[in-house]
Amino acid sequence: MTTFFQSVRQGFANRQGGRANGVNGNPNQQRSQNTSPVTGNPTNPSPSSTGAPVSFPSNPGASVEDTLKTGADCLAPEETKWFFKEAYAKLSVKGNFMPLAAKPSYLDLGDWLAHQTVEQYRLITYFVVSVQEVNQNTNTVVCNANECPTMSAGRHYIYTWLNNERKPIPVPACQYIALVQRWIVGKIHDPVAFPTDSPFGRTAPSFESSYPSTAGTEQEGRKPIAAGPTNLSRTLSDLAGQDWVGKSAGFPESFLSDVRTAWRQMFRIYAHLYHAHFINPFWHIHNPNYMDLNSSFCYFVSVGKLFGLIGERDLEPMQDLIDIWNSNGSIPTDCANGAFAITQ
Protein backbone atom coordinates (compact mmCIF):
# COMPACT_ATOMS: atom_id res chain seq x y z
CA MET A 1 0.00 0.00 0.00
CA THR A 2 2.88 2.31 0.80
CA THR A 3 4.23 1.72 -2.68
CA PHE A 4 0.81 2.37 -4.18
CA PHE A 5 0.28 5.71 -2.47
CA GLN A 6 3.89 6.75 -3.06
CA SER A 7 3.48 6.08 -6.78
CA VAL A 8 0.34 8.17 -6.86
CA ARG A 9 1.90 11.09 -5.02
CA GLN A 10 4.92 10.99 -7.33
CA GLY A 11 2.65 11.54 -10.32
CA PHE A 12 1.69 9.48 -13.30
CA ALA A 13 4.50 10.28 -15.72
CA ASN A 14 6.32 7.01 -15.03
CA ARG A 15 3.21 5.00 -15.91
CA GLN A 16 3.15 5.83 -19.61
CA GLY A 17 5.75 3.31 -20.69
CA GLY A 18 5.82 0.39 -18.29
CA ARG A 19 2.42 0.03 -16.65
CA ALA A 20 0.63 -1.77 -19.42
CA ASN A 21 0.28 -4.87 -17.23
CA GLY A 22 -2.71 -7.08 -18.01
CA VAL A 23 -4.43 -4.49 -20.18
CA ASN A 24 -1.85 -4.74 -22.91
CA GLY A 25 -1.58 -8.51 -22.68
CA ASN A 26 1.82 -9.06 -21.03
CA PRO A 27 1.54 -12.63 -19.64
CA ASN A 28 4.36 -12.04 -17.17
CA GLN A 29 2.43 -9.30 -15.45
CA GLN A 30 -1.08 -10.70 -15.71
CA ARG A 31 -2.94 -12.53 -12.98
CA SER A 32 -3.67 -16.01 -14.25
CA GLN A 33 -7.06 -16.39 -15.88
CA ASN A 34 -7.57 -19.54 -13.81
CA THR A 35 -7.43 -17.55 -10.58
CA SER A 36 -10.38 -15.35 -11.54
CA PRO A 37 -13.25 -15.59 -9.03
CA VAL A 38 -15.70 -15.81 -11.94
CA THR A 39 -15.73 -17.27 -15.41
CA GLY A 40 -15.60 -14.55 -18.01
CA ASN A 41 -16.43 -10.90 -17.44
CA PRO A 42 -18.66 -9.49 -14.73
CA THR A 43 -22.31 -8.99 -15.51
CA ASN A 44 -22.79 -5.89 -17.64
CA PRO A 45 -25.88 -3.71 -17.39
CA SER A 46 -28.44 -4.13 -20.13
CA PRO A 47 -27.44 -2.04 -23.15
CA SER A 48 -29.14 1.25 -23.78
CA SER A 49 -28.23 3.22 -26.88
CA THR A 50 -28.09 6.97 -26.54
CA GLY A 51 -29.23 7.54 -30.12
CA ALA A 52 -28.55 11.02 -31.51
CA PRO A 53 -25.40 12.97 -30.58
CA VAL A 54 -25.63 14.57 -27.18
CA SER A 55 -25.31 18.30 -26.58
CA PHE A 56 -23.98 19.19 -23.14
CA PRO A 57 -24.08 22.40 -21.14
CA SER A 58 -20.90 24.43 -20.96
CA ASN A 59 -20.97 24.04 -17.17
CA PRO A 60 -21.16 20.32 -16.38
CA GLY A 61 -21.23 21.05 -12.67
CA ALA A 62 -24.75 22.34 -12.98
CA SER A 63 -25.91 19.26 -14.84
CA VAL A 64 -25.71 16.57 -12.20
CA GLU A 65 -28.75 14.32 -12.23
CA ASP A 66 -29.83 12.02 -9.44
CA THR A 67 -29.70 8.26 -9.70
CA LEU A 68 -32.33 6.65 -11.92
CA LYS A 69 -33.72 3.22 -11.10
CA THR A 70 -35.63 2.30 -14.23
CA GLY A 71 -36.18 -0.56 -16.63
CA ALA A 72 -37.40 -4.12 -16.33
CA ASP A 73 -33.96 -5.38 -15.27
CA CYS A 74 -34.20 -3.31 -12.10
CA LEU A 75 -37.05 -5.50 -10.88
CA ALA A 76 -34.89 -8.61 -10.84
CA PRO A 77 -32.26 -9.03 -8.11
CA GLU A 78 -28.63 -9.27 -9.15
CA GLU A 79 -26.32 -12.05 -8.13
CA THR A 80 -24.00 -11.09 -5.28
CA LYS A 81 -20.96 -9.36 -6.73
CA TRP A 82 -17.59 -10.78 -5.79
CA PHE A 83 -16.39 -7.48 -4.35
CA PHE A 84 -19.30 -7.63 -1.88
CA LYS A 85 -17.76 -10.77 -0.34
CA GLU A 86 -15.36 -10.40 2.54
CA ALA A 87 -12.71 -12.53 0.84
CA TYR A 88 -12.40 -9.89 -1.89
CA ALA A 89 -12.82 -6.84 0.34
CA LYS A 90 -9.21 -6.97 1.53
CA LEU A 91 -7.06 -3.85 1.59
CA SER A 92 -3.40 -3.53 0.73
CA VAL A 93 -2.82 -1.62 3.96
CA LYS A 94 -3.18 -2.48 7.65
CA GLY A 95 -5.20 -0.40 10.05
CA ASN A 96 -7.50 2.37 8.83
CA PHE A 97 -7.35 5.77 7.17
CA MET A 98 -8.22 7.96 10.15
CA PRO A 99 -4.70 9.46 10.29
CA LEU A 100 -5.10 10.59 6.66
CA ALA A 101 -8.75 11.65 7.02
CA ALA A 102 -8.69 13.68 10.23
CA LYS A 103 -8.10 17.41 9.87
CA PRO A 104 -5.00 18.75 11.63
CA SER A 105 -6.00 21.22 14.33
CA TYR A 106 -3.96 24.05 12.83
CA LEU A 107 -5.61 23.91 9.39
CA ASP A 108 -8.73 25.71 8.22
CA LEU A 109 -11.55 23.31 7.30
CA GLY A 110 -11.78 24.81 3.82
CA ASP A 111 -8.09 24.21 3.18
CA TRP A 112 -8.39 20.62 4.40
CA LEU A 113 -11.42 19.84 2.23
CA ALA A 114 -9.69 21.37 -0.78
CA HIS A 115 -6.61 19.23 -0.11
CA GLN A 116 -8.72 16.10 0.27
CA THR A 117 -10.65 16.81 -2.93
CA VAL A 118 -7.46 17.25 -4.95
CA GLU A 119 -5.86 14.17 -3.36
CA GLN A 120 -8.92 11.98 -3.92
CA TYR A 121 -9.09 13.06 -7.54
CA ARG A 122 -5.42 12.17 -7.99
CA LEU A 123 -6.05 8.73 -6.52
CA ILE A 124 -9.14 7.93 -8.59
CA THR A 125 -7.35 9.08 -11.76
CA TYR A 126 -4.85 6.29 -11.12
CA PHE A 127 -7.65 3.75 -11.64
CA VAL A 128 -9.52 5.61 -14.37
CA VAL A 129 -6.37 5.53 -16.50
CA SER A 130 -6.43 1.74 -16.26
CA VAL A 131 -9.82 1.55 -18.02
CA GLN A 132 -8.92 4.28 -20.49
CA GLU A 133 -5.85 2.52 -21.86
CA VAL A 134 -6.06 0.67 -25.16
CA ASN A 135 -6.15 -3.11 -25.08
CA GLN A 136 -3.66 -4.10 -27.76
CA ASN A 137 -5.53 -7.34 -28.43
CA THR A 138 -8.80 -5.63 -29.31
CA ASN A 139 -7.48 -2.16 -30.18
CA THR A 140 -10.17 -0.59 -27.97
CA VAL A 141 -10.13 1.00 -24.55
CA VAL A 142 -11.35 -1.19 -21.70
CA CYS A 143 -14.28 1.11 -20.90
CA ASN A 144 -15.92 1.91 -24.22
CA ALA A 145 -19.36 2.83 -25.50
CA ASN A 146 -20.11 -0.71 -26.65
CA GLU A 147 -19.18 -2.47 -23.44
CA CYS A 148 -20.50 0.29 -21.15
CA PRO A 149 -23.32 2.05 -23.03
CA THR A 150 -24.55 3.75 -19.85
CA MET A 151 -22.90 5.13 -16.72
CA SER A 152 -24.17 2.44 -14.40
CA ALA A 153 -23.42 0.61 -11.19
CA GLY A 154 -25.05 -2.72 -11.91
CA ARG A 155 -28.54 -3.11 -13.28
CA HIS A 156 -30.22 -1.09 -10.55
CA TYR A 157 -28.35 2.21 -10.83
CA ILE A 158 -28.01 4.29 -13.97
CA TYR A 159 -26.55 7.79 -13.79
CA THR A 160 -27.63 10.42 -16.30
CA TRP A 161 -26.40 13.83 -17.39
CA LEU A 162 -28.43 16.91 -18.20
CA ASN A 163 -28.26 18.16 -21.78
CA ASN A 164 -28.60 21.80 -22.87
CA GLU A 165 -32.37 21.48 -22.56
CA ARG A 166 -31.78 20.28 -18.98
CA LYS A 167 -33.24 16.89 -19.76
CA PRO A 168 -31.64 13.84 -18.11
CA ILE A 169 -30.15 11.55 -20.73
CA PRO A 170 -28.04 8.38 -20.47
CA VAL A 171 -24.54 8.62 -21.90
CA PRO A 172 -21.78 6.02 -22.28
CA ALA A 173 -19.72 5.55 -19.15
CA CYS A 174 -16.51 6.66 -20.87
CA GLN A 175 -18.15 9.94 -21.89
CA TYR A 176 -19.68 10.50 -18.46
CA ILE A 177 -16.32 9.93 -16.75
CA ALA A 178 -14.62 12.36 -19.18
CA LEU A 179 -17.25 15.01 -18.40
CA VAL A 180 -16.73 14.55 -14.66
CA GLN A 181 -12.96 14.79 -15.06
CA ARG A 182 -13.29 17.99 -17.08
CA TRP A 183 -15.54 19.53 -14.46
CA ILE A 184 -13.37 18.60 -11.46
CA VAL A 185 -10.13 19.70 -13.14
CA GLY A 186 -11.80 22.97 -14.09
CA LYS A 187 -12.81 23.55 -10.48
CA ILE A 188 -9.52 22.73 -8.80
CA HIS A 189 -7.64 24.94 -11.29
CA ASP A 190 -10.09 27.80 -10.93
CA PRO A 191 -8.46 30.42 -8.63
CA VAL A 192 -11.91 31.63 -7.60
CA ALA A 193 -13.39 28.22 -6.73
CA PHE A 194 -10.15 26.84 -5.24
CA PRO A 195 -7.99 29.88 -4.39
CA THR A 196 -4.33 29.30 -3.66
CA ASP A 197 -3.50 32.78 -2.38
CA SER A 198 -3.94 33.42 1.31
CA PRO A 199 -6.67 35.97 2.04
CA PHE A 200 -4.32 37.58 4.55
CA GLY A 201 -1.99 38.55 1.73
CA ARG A 202 -4.58 40.84 0.23
CA THR A 203 -5.02 44.50 1.04
CA ALA A 204 -6.88 44.86 4.32
CA PRO A 205 -10.26 46.56 3.99
CA SER A 206 -10.50 50.15 5.20
CA PHE A 207 -13.22 51.23 7.58
CA GLU A 208 -14.74 54.68 7.92
CA SER A 209 -14.38 56.40 11.25
CA SER A 210 -17.45 56.38 13.49
CA TYR A 211 -17.02 60.13 13.99
CA PRO A 212 -18.38 62.74 11.58
CA SER A 213 -16.07 64.94 9.60
CA THR A 214 -15.93 68.29 11.40
CA ALA A 215 -12.63 69.49 10.08
CA GLY A 216 -11.91 73.09 10.90
CA THR A 217 -14.36 73.28 13.81
CA GLU A 218 -13.91 73.15 17.55
CA GLN A 219 -15.89 69.92 17.72
CA GLU A 220 -13.57 68.17 15.28
CA GLY A 221 -13.62 64.42 15.96
CA ARG A 222 -15.52 64.71 19.26
CA LYS A 223 -19.15 64.09 18.35
CA PRO A 224 -19.97 60.37 17.97
CA ILE A 225 -22.62 58.94 15.65
CA ALA A 226 -25.21 56.79 17.37
CA ALA A 227 -24.95 53.15 16.29
CA GLY A 228 -27.98 51.25 15.03
CA PRO A 229 -29.84 48.81 17.28
CA THR A 230 -28.21 45.43 17.92
CA ASN A 231 -29.47 42.04 19.04
CA LEU A 232 -27.23 40.50 21.69
CA SER A 233 -28.70 37.07 21.05
CA ARG A 234 -27.20 36.94 17.54
CA THR A 235 -23.97 35.02 16.98
CA LEU A 236 -20.76 36.82 16.13
CA SER A 237 -20.80 35.21 12.67
CA ASP A 238 -24.29 36.63 12.08
CA LEU A 239 -23.19 40.06 13.23
CA ALA A 240 -20.16 39.83 10.96
CA GLY A 241 -22.24 38.72 7.98
CA GLN A 242 -23.10 35.34 6.50
CA ASP A 243 -20.60 32.59 7.24
CA TRP A 244 -19.68 29.46 5.26
CA VAL A 245 -17.09 26.71 5.19
CA GLY A 246 -13.76 28.07 3.97
CA LYS A 247 -14.74 31.74 4.21
CA SER A 248 -11.84 32.63 6.51
CA ALA A 249 -9.41 30.95 4.09
CA GLY A 250 -10.72 32.83 1.07
CA PHE A 251 -13.00 30.17 -0.45
CA PRO A 252 -16.26 31.31 -2.09
CA GLU A 253 -19.72 30.64 -0.69
CA SER A 254 -20.24 27.88 -3.27
CA PHE A 255 -17.15 25.99 -2.14
CA LEU A 256 -18.84 23.32 -0.01
CA SER A 257 -21.44 22.68 -2.70
CA ASP A 258 -18.67 22.21 -5.28
CA VAL A 259 -16.80 19.83 -2.99
CA ARG A 260 -19.91 17.73 -2.39
CA THR A 261 -20.64 17.62 -6.11
CA ALA A 262 -17.10 16.45 -6.81
CA TRP A 263 -17.40 13.81 -4.10
CA ARG A 264 -20.71 12.53 -5.42
CA GLN A 265 -19.37 12.29 -8.95
CA MET A 266 -16.15 10.56 -7.88
CA PHE A 267 -18.24 8.02 -5.99
CA ARG A 268 -20.18 7.27 -9.17
CA ILE A 269 -16.91 6.60 -10.97
CA TYR A 270 -15.82 4.22 -8.22
CA ALA A 271 -19.20 2.48 -8.34
CA HIS A 272 -18.89 1.97 -12.10
CA LEU A 273 -15.30 0.74 -11.81
CA TYR A 274 -16.41 -1.90 -9.33
CA HIS A 275 -19.59 -3.06 -11.03
CA ALA A 276 -18.25 -3.04 -14.59
CA HIS A 277 -14.48 -3.45 -14.29
CA PHE A 278 -13.61 -5.27 -11.07
CA ILE A 279 -12.63 -8.37 -13.07
CA ASN A 280 -11.42 -6.59 -16.18
CA PRO A 281 -8.97 -5.11 -15.57
CA PHE A 282 -8.40 -4.90 -11.79
CA TRP A 283 -8.48 -8.60 -10.94
CA HIS A 284 -6.04 -9.43 -13.72
CA ILE A 285 -3.45 -6.67 -13.27
CA HIS A 286 -0.94 -6.06 -10.51
CA ASN A 287 -0.45 -2.30 -10.51
CA PRO A 288 -2.97 -1.21 -9.47
CA ASN A 289 -4.76 -4.40 -8.42
CA TYR A 290 -8.16 -4.89 -6.82
CA MET A 291 -6.79 -4.47 -3.28
CA ASP A 292 -5.36 -1.09 -4.28
CA LEU A 293 -8.79 -0.18 -5.63
CA ASN A 294 -10.33 -1.29 -2.31
CA SER A 295 -7.83 0.74 -0.31
CA SER A 296 -8.35 3.92 -2.32
CA PHE A 297 -12.13 3.59 -2.17
CA CYS A 298 -12.06 2.87 1.58
CA TYR A 299 -10.00 6.02 2.10
CA PHE A 300 -12.45 7.98 -0.07
CA VAL A 301 -15.48 6.74 1.88
CA SER A 302 -13.77 7.37 5.24
CA VAL A 303 -13.18 11.04 4.42
CA GLY A 304 -16.57 11.49 2.77
CA LYS A 305 -18.50 10.09 5.72
CA LEU A 306 -16.33 11.78 8.36
CA PHE A 307 -17.18 15.25 7.01
CA GLY A 308 -20.62 14.45 5.58
CA LEU A 309 -19.56 15.06 1.98
CA ILE A 310 -21.73 12.30 0.53
CA GLY A 311 -25.19 11.12 1.49
CA GLU A 312 -26.29 7.64 2.50
CA ARG A 313 -28.57 7.39 -0.53
CA ASP A 314 -25.63 8.07 -2.83
CA LEU A 315 -23.67 5.23 -1.22
CA GLU A 316 -26.34 2.58 -1.84
CA PRO A 317 -24.71 0.92 -4.90
CA MET A 318 -21.64 0.05 -2.78
CA GLN A 319 -23.28 -0.29 0.64
CA ASP A 320 -22.56 -4.02 1.06
CA LEU A 321 -18.82 -3.42 0.68
CA ILE A 322 -18.95 -0.39 2.97
CA ASP A 323 -20.77 -2.50 5.59
CA ILE A 324 -17.92 -5.03 5.56
CA TRP A 325 -15.39 -2.27 6.21
CA ASN A 326 -17.59 -0.76 8.92
CA SER A 327 -17.76 -4.09 10.72
CA ASN A 328 -14.06 -4.96 10.51
CA GLY A 329 -12.85 -1.48 11.45
CA SER A 330 -11.32 -0.57 8.09
CA ILE A 331 -13.66 2.43 8.21
CA PRO A 332 -13.21 3.90 11.73
CA THR A 333 -16.24 4.38 13.95
CA ASP A 334 -15.87 8.17 13.90
CA CYS A 335 -15.93 8.12 10.11
CA ALA A 336 -18.86 5.73 9.92
CA ASN A 337 -20.84 7.93 12.32
CA GLY A 338 -19.89 11.20 10.62
CA ALA A 339 -18.21 12.60 13.73
CA PHE A 340 -17.34 15.88 12.00
CA ALA A 341 -20.14 15.97 9.44
CA ILE A 342 -20.84 19.47 8.14
CA THR A 343 -24.51 20.32 8.56
CA GLN A 344 -24.80 23.43 6.42
Structure summary:
The chain is mainly alpha-helical and 344 residues long. It contains 11 helices and 5 strands, in the order H-H-H-H-E-E-E-E-E-H-H-H-H-H-H-H. Helix content is 36%, strand content 4%.
Q: Strand share of the residues?
A: under 5%
Fraction in helix = 25-40%
3D shape: globular
Taking pLDDT < 50 over at least 5 consecutive residues as the criterion, the unreliable ranges are: 1-68, 200-215, 224-239
The count of DSSP E runs of length 2 or more, i.e. the number of strands, is: 5
Biggest sheet details: 3 strands, antiparallel
Number of helices: 11
Provide the succession of SSEs. Answer: HHHHEEEEEHHHHHHH
Q: What is the typical, i.e. mean, pLDDT?
A: 73
Give the spatial strand order of the biggest sheet. 3-4-5
Helices and strands: which structural class? Answer: mainly alpha
Distance between the termini: 35 Å
Radius of gyration: 25 Å
Structure description:
It is globular, with a radius of gyration of 25 Å. The strands form 2 sheets. The chain has a 3-stranded antiparallel beta sheet. It has a two-stranded antiparallel sheet with strand order 1-2. The chain is 36% helix and 4% strand. The chain starts with a helix and ends in an 8-residue tail after the last helix. It is mostly helical. The protein has 11 helices and 5 strands; from the N terminus they run ααααβββββααααααα.
What labels describe this entry?
344 residues; mainly alpha; 3-stranded antiparallel sheet; two-stranded antiparallel sheet; globular; disordered N terminus
